[in-house]
Amino acid sequence: MTTISPILLFLCYLFSSLSVGFGVTNADSAVAKVLCDASPTCNSATPPSTSSTTTISDKNDKKLNATRDKFNRDGYIVLKNYFRNNDDPTQEESLVPLLGDDWHDFSLKYWNRIFQVLHEKGHISEPHHVMNDEYNNGKLRHPGYKEIVHRYPGRYELSLNRISDHTKEEDSLLYHDMPLLQPIIDKLEHLILSILKQHPNYQELPDGTKYNLLHSMLISAPHSLIQKFHVDTKHTNEEEHWPAHIINVFIPLVNMTTRVLGPTEVVPRSHVQTRFMYSDNPQTRSQAKPLGSSTVTPLMNVGDVLMFDFRTLHRGLPNVSRNQNRPMLVLAFSIPSFHDKANWPGPSIFE
Ligand SMILES: O=C(O)CCC(=O)C(=O)O
Fold first, then answer.
1. In a 10 Å sphere around its CB, with 0-12 CB exposed, 13-18 middle and 19+ buried, how is residue 194 labelled?
2. Nearest to residue 316, comparing CAs of 258, 262, 268?
3. Burial annotation 24-47 (CB, 10 A radius, 16+ → b, else e)
4. d(CA 219, CA 87)
5. What residue range is the signal peptide (predicted)?
6. Total structural domains in the chain?
7. First and final C-alpha spacing in the chain
8. Pairing mode, if any, of strands 212-220 and 148-152?
9. How far is the CA of 296 from the centre of ligand 1 (A)?
């Protein structure tokens, strides 16, 4: 077993706990050191600059590295006001109106339209969503359709790739109304790539593809149930901890400053332990360490973002409002060689 020098451990801890002003974690710091040891990227944190002058680009690099290291350590990160640039007029415009108005309105329209189509095609008995056994145990039960997957009672994921790639002929109403996505992707790309490029299998494709992107909308309807903690993918290496190969980006389209609409809960640092939990090999599975009980439930406004490793344990809390949907835009970025097929089965609702 490798011996870690105390200086290295201290540096590792120092860099991984740099405050970048985002989110809160109540996880225990002793665990941080152990997991820091487990993370190959933690030990390669950029050393402090010896130069006496700090340029804007140095500052940006430091901020990016600190954000990436925090993500690597905790398996998630909350970026407050990420899509809002009120405090810096030299930056590009705030994307809050695009998210809170355009995408929000579209999410409700899309939701209603999907249930109308489900009804027109004979998949459900009413032309709108209702919480009953038809959904919980019947036709819309997991695994669902290409366009809509019922993740848990009252909780649905609606594919936007499906709209972008196929829906033009099938349903022009859906296709033409989709708001701009590119400014949101552009804003995220630099950070996402800096995380994905750490993966040993990361390789840009000859056609210039830097990542795969699945985009969808996650809607939790009133009276949705609390989910079980789960991961969204297995690890790519069972022998040692590797950096993330696929990242979930949750972008709220309504303010969630209380728990009423059912925010997402994550288990910090669980992305390291889950390596053992979902192995096909029973012997490896038996090595699973007991998971820490501390959890984090970020309360986010439109303009904030939650990013987490697909291997981090998480769940959606119940929407206990009387009649308000909780819509989120979800972007899943993966290394070019990885295609998330498990979460999107068929058939199409149009078939
Ligand atoms: O609704 C949420 O916040 C999380 C949903 C989720 O993890 C899922 O549907 O798999």
1. middle
2. 262
3. ebebeeebbbebbbebebbeebee
4. 31
5. 1-23
6. 1
7. 56
8. unpaired
9. 14
Provide the residue type at 304 as one letter.
D
- CB-ligand 1 contact for 218 (6 Å cutoff): yes
Distance, in Å, from the CA atom of 150 to the CA atom of 143, rounded to the nearest integer, reads 7
By C-alpha distance, which of 178, 158, 89 is closest to 118?
Answer: 158
**Tell me, what DSSP letter sits at residue 198?**
T
Residue 142: predicted pLDDT: 55
Beta strands in the chain (DSSP E): 76-79, 148-152, 155-159, 212-220, 246-252, 264-266, 305-309, 314-316, 326-334
Chain-centroid distance of CA 154 in Å reads 19
CB atoms within 10 A of CB 14: 11
Q: What is the CATH number of the domain that holds 301?
A: 2.60.120.620
Residue nearest to atom 4 of ligand 1 (CA): 316
**Pick from 232, 338, 309: which is nearest to 71 by CA?**
309
* Ligand 1 centroid distance, CA of 253 (Å): 15
Residue that wins the pLDDT comparison between 25 and 152: 152
Q: Which atom of ligand 1 is nearest to the CA of 262?
A: 3
**What's residue 33's pLDDT?**
25
Q: Which of 19-23, 213-217, 278-282 has the lowest mean pLDDT?
A: 19-23
Judge if the beta carbon of residue 224 lies within 6 A of ligand 1. no
Round to whole Å and give the CA distance between 14 and 3.
19
